[in-house]
Automatic annotation (TrEMBL):
<comment type="function">
    <text>Required for disulfide bond formation in some periplasmic proteins. Acts by oxidizing the DsbA protein.</text>
</comment>
<feature type="topological domain" description="Cytoplasmic">
    <location>
        <begin position="1"/>
        <end position="6"/>
    </location>
</feature>
<keyword id="KW-1133">Transmembrane helix</keyword>
<comment type="similarity">
    <text>Belongs to the DsbB family.</text>
</comment>
<keyword id="KW-1003">Cell membrane</keyword>
<keyword id="KW-0812">Transmembrane</keyword>
<dbReference type="InterPro" id="IPR023380">
    <property type="entry name" value="DsbB-like_sf"/>
</dbReference>
<keyword id="KW-0560">Oxidoreductase</keyword>
<keyword id="KW-0997">Cell inner membrane</keyword>
<feature type="transmembrane region" description="Helical">
    <location>
        <begin position="144"/>
        <end position="161"/>
    </location>
</feature>
<dbReference type="InterPro" id="IPR050183">
    <property type="entry name" value="DsbB"/>
</dbReference>
<dbReference type="InterPro" id="IPR022920">
    <property type="entry name" value="Disulphide_bond_form_DsbB"/>
</dbReference>
<feature type="transmembrane region" description="Helical">
    <location>
        <begin position="37"/>
        <end position="55"/>
    </location>
</feature>
<dbReference type="InterPro" id="IPR003752">
    <property type="entry name" value="DiS_bond_form_DsbB/BdbC"/>
</dbReference>
<keyword id="KW-0813">Transport</keyword>
<feature type="transmembrane region" description="Helical">
    <location>
        <begin position="7"/>
        <end position="25"/>
    </location>
</feature>
<feature type="topological domain" description="Cytoplasmic">
    <location>
        <begin position="163"/>
        <end position="174"/>
    </location>
</feature>
Amino acid sequence: MNKRPHYLFVFIFCLMLLGAALFFQLVVGLEPCPLCVLQRLALMAIGLVAVLAFLHNPSGWGDKAYGLLLVCGGLFSAGIAIRQVWLLSLPPEEAASCGPGLEVWLDSFITYLPQGSVTEILLRSGASCTEVSWSIFGLSLPQLTSPLFILLAFYLIWLFFRRGNNHVGTFSMR
């Protein structure tokens, strides 16, 4: 199976999710929470690895290395989505924060990046992880997007275990 179209699909899917996140931030006016920023970073990493795999078109160990990186990114983003939905399901008096020192860690990470409007827009968080400021049909944005992150993780796991055969049609004496 040639995995190049799958890598391109993953890259485009990540771009669409990041575009939707920017739409909700810039047009709708929703501020991302620190967990949302971590999901954006995971999506950027998944998209970058996917486009590199698409361009490189690896076989053998290279394919497994790209696949392992994609699976790790997919599981990380799905874990963040599940944690955020869990935080939203807690009663307000028991609600925990986004994580111990997560906001401080993100701020120190952002200071090492080139400063500019793109970095500020993508990675600055201003909302609480347990605050629901937008919903549709009674579902918050994390509840609506978590199935997408979980499906992406399952898709990447499926892709990892698919046997790659990039040399279809070549002559062999076996």
